[in-house]
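Deliverable D2.4 — example input (structure tokens):
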């Protein structure tokens, strides 16, 4: 009986319980904090590439001449706009991946005649950004809306140890379009 009392007295003591609790809780709290940081960065990159694509589409849709001369900017100029926005947010433009090798933008159609701009053209820039000009944006509206479209993809790799997403690369897609002004 005396031995049992000693054992129960030993287990009733709480010496070191705080350390054991902290050892169990701190790694979980640290993983939660890391998750917030990495998902926040993924959202930041997604938002930035969407903004870059939108600004690129705006640049592609604008006439570069002082008079209405149908002078669309070169794809290299659109590339400069997109990469400038990415660099401003510390995103490496060298990691940009093209939308698709054979099909730059699914469902792209040329503007119906009489198109206000030159014929439909899609070109790939040096940074793997597809720039399409004089494309039909919305076939359901009358008159048809013609414009420019910019599309690309950007890889993002998570670093969350002990999770299923650790070291996995996700591809974030950016596609934007803008109506051409006459």
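Example output (designed residues):
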């Amino acid at each position: 009986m005396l031995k049992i009392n000693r054992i129960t007295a030993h287990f009733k003591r709480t010496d070191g319980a705080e350390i054991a609790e902290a050892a169990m809780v701190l790694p979980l709290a640290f993983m939660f904090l890391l998750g917030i940081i990495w998902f926040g960065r993924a959202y930041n990159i997604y938002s930035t590439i969407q903004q870059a694509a939108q600004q690129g589409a705006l640049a592609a849709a604008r006439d570069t001449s002082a008079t209405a001369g149908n002078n669309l900017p070169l794809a290299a100029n659109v590339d400069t706009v997109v990469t400038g926005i990415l660099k401003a947010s510390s995103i490496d433009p060298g990691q940009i991946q093209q939308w698709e090798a054979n099909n730059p933008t699914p469902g792209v159609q040329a503007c119906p005649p009489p198109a206000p701009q030159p014929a439909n053209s899609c070109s790939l820039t040096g940074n793997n950004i597809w720039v399409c000009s004089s494309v039909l944006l919305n076939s359901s509206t009358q008159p048809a809306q013609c414009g420019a479209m910019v599309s690309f993809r950007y890889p993002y790799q998570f670093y969350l140890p002990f999770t299923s997403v650790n070291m996995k690369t996700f591809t974030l897609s950016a596609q934007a379009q803008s109506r051409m002004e006459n």
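Residues 26 and 148 are 51 Å apart (CA to CA).
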